[in-house]
Amino acid sequence: MTTIIKANSLEQAKSRLERVRSERESTEQAARDEAHAIPFGQPNIEGRGNIYKHVQRQWDRTRRLADEEERAADRVDMLEMVESFKEDNEQLQDVRVVGRTGWASVGAATSVNNLDYFKGELAQMIADNEAAKAWNKNHRDAKRCTFGSKITALRKKVAYLEAVKSKADSTPVSEHSQQLIDSGQVSQWKKKPIYYFVNGLRKVALTLDDNGDFQESKRYPAYEDSDRKTVQKLLAH
C-alpha cells in the first residue's frame, strides 16, 4: 500500500502520538486507582451490579489505546525515515512510500516536481557507467557493474515527465474548465499535472483536450454508474 505524505505529516503524527500516549497513561492510572479502591477479595453479590464492570471497561480502553499508540509510533518512525531520505536528497520534492512503519520502502515518486532530481541521478549514473566501462577495459578479472539498462529506464522516465510538464504548461484551459477548477469540483494533480481528479470520487480524473475542455481520463476512468453520472454532469456545458 502506498502511503500519502503531506508537508506537515510528521508534526501531526508526533502530536497524535503524544495525545494517544497521554490518554492511555491517564486511563491506565484511573483503572489502577479504581481497582485499588475496591476492597481486596470483594465478591460480586447476586442481584447487585458487577462492581468490577467499570474497571474492566477501563482496562479494555487501555488496551485499545495501547494498540493505537503502537500504530501512531510506527507512523512517526516511518515519517522520520522519509524526512531523513529527503534530507539526503536535497533536490527531491515528492517521495513514494510503501508501508506504514519504520520498515516501509521509501523512494522517489514519479513526479514532475522531481525532474531536477531524476536529471541529476541520470547524469551521475552516466558518469559512473563510463567510469565502470573504462575500468573494465583494463581489469578483465575484476569487472565493475555497468548501468546500461538502468540508464535507459531513467531516460524514459525523464522524457515522460518532461512531456507531462510540457503538455500541462502548454494546454489551454477553457472558461468552463476554469470554473470547475475554481469551484473546487476538480483538483489538479501536482505530481502529474495533466490529470484533474474529481473531488468526492475515488481515483476518477479528467484531462484537458486541445481546446481546453475537460474529457474523461483513460487512465483514471469512472467505473461506477453513480461516478459516471457525476462525470457527465461536470462535462455538460
Order of helices and strands: EHHEEHHHEEEEH
Number of domains: 3
Radius of gyration: 28 Å
Distance between the termini: 38 Å
Shape: flat
Number of helices: 6
Given helix and strand content, the structural type is alpha+beta
Main sheet specs: 4 strands, antiparallel
Assembly state = single chain
Mean pLDDT over the residues: 91
Number of strands: 7
Q: Proportion of β residues?
A: 5-15%
Low-confidence runs (pLDDT<50, min 5 residues)? none
Helix content: 40-55%
- Strand arrangement, major sheet: 4-5-6-7
Describe it.
With 237 residues, this protein is α+β, with helices and mostly antiparallel strands. It has 3 domains: 2-109, no CATH class; 116-169; 175-235, no CATH class. Helix content is 55%, strand content 10%. It contains 6 helices and 7 strands; from the N terminus they run E-H-H-E-E-H-H-H-E-E-E-E-H. The protein has helices at residues 9-37, 53-87, 115-138, 148-170, 175-182, 225-235; strands at residues 2-3, 95-98, 105-108, 186-188, 196-198, 205-208, 214-216. The chain is flat and about 80 Å long. The protein starts with a strand and ends with a helix. Residues 15-36 are annotated as: Disordered. This is Mobilization protein.
Architecture blueprint of SSEs:
Elements: E1 2-3, H1 9-37, H2 53-87, E2 95-98, E3 105-108, H3 115-138, H4 148-170, H5 175-182, E4 186-188, E5 196-198, E6 205-208, E7 214-216, H6 225-235
Antiparallel strand pairs: 1-2, 2-3, 4-5, 5-6, 6-7
Helix pairs in contact: 1-2, 3-4
